[in-house]
Amino acid sequence: MTLKVNTDPAESGFDANRLERIDRHFARYVDDGLLPGWQIVVGRHGNVVHSSRAGHRDVEAGLPVESGTLWRIFSMTKPVTSVAAMMLFEEGAFDLTDPIARWLPEFAEPRVYVKGSALRPATEPATEPIRVWHLLSHTSGLTYGFHHAHPVDAMYRAAGFEWGAPPGLDLAGCVAKWAELPLVFQPGSEWNYSVSTDVLGRFVEVVSGQSLDEFFRERIFTPLGMTDTSFGVDDERLGALYIPEPGTRRAVRNEAFGKVGRGRPDYWSGGGGLVSTAADYHRFTQFLLRGGELDGVRLLGPRTVALMTANHLPGDVDLEAYGRPLFAEMPFHGFGFGLGFSVLTDPVKAKTLSSKGEYAWGGAASTAFWVDPATGVTALFFTQLLPSSTHPIRQELRNLVYQALVG
């Protein structure tokens, strides 16, 4: 499947000359060696108004970025897992306020870190069960080993969870291990980017009776025509993965991280395991923009999509007020969080040209997407540079897209 511009940008309210600024700007990243290559897609009201690519998917092999290049989308997997869960919600399988221990009994008696070190933590019983909406909104109290900000993060690393999982451990095994570790805070009391969506993936498996891989393929990817999206591939179209060189920040190939996404993984990571193409993920954004339907196939009702893309942080505050000031795939100022997506609550506070109500997320290798219901604009950016905090790509892309929107 390929992506081509299928409308005159002017008919969709874009200035074609201003759209060219996008490519000129990001071409410099490649020219300066800061990115190996990239692919960008901008749409409006279902039409592709801008589609471009530059550089290489594999610099050392001289393989260029092509229309069908495969990308590790890492945490852009999370919205897919969230959609899967909400499909089951619509079938009456659970309520958002249900304790997850009903399906995942290993979480029946979670304990919460109070004080102490990673080796000798003091904990107390959770006063609130972890509920389904806590997983969807990252308010569960779970964490990530790569945060390096809390003693519980160190406990995750000691258990083998930093940028992955111990070899041979499947999703059920990972969830069982996480359930043995203390929570960072009482469920529902704060926001913390975490393995919550991986646990949600296991929840989908238990509720549906299917592996997450099967559920995605049969109930989301095949119906939406996402023919190139899966957990791991053996395909030369998959780009190499790069990290910034200390000091120069030039992109340097990293074979250890690059193994991720090649071949079948030991566990289906609903939080970051998918490989996809620009064409496939564009279809996913159009499905969201259209309120849960694409090409006559409806997977979610529009009221469900509206609920998922509303800010679920208590008091309608932003992440700066409710979240821990750690790494996430979005800024904290002016952004709240829904059920699987960041939600732009205040464009002025966020200092962005995007619209209130925009929902989005990104991946660790500097990929990103957003959907803007107010203007009908969708945008995608793909590259393979880890971590995503290396360059301000997402804010730059927002500003470059919206400066070109003139009608």
TrEMBL record:
Highest taxon of the lineage: Bacteria
Domain Beta-lactamase-related per the UniProt entry, residue ranges: 22-397
Protein name: Beta-lactamase family protein
One of the Pfam families matching this protein, by short name: Beta-lactamase
Organism: Amycolatopsis acididurans
PANTHER family noted in UniProt: BETA-LACTAMASE FAMILY PROTEIN (AFU_ORTHOLOGUE AFUA_5G07500), BETA-LACTAMASE-RELATED
Classification via InterPro entries: Beta-lactam-related, Beta-lactam/transpept-like, Diverse_Enzym_Activities
Entries under SUPFAM superfamilies matching the protein: beta-lactamase/transpeptidase-like
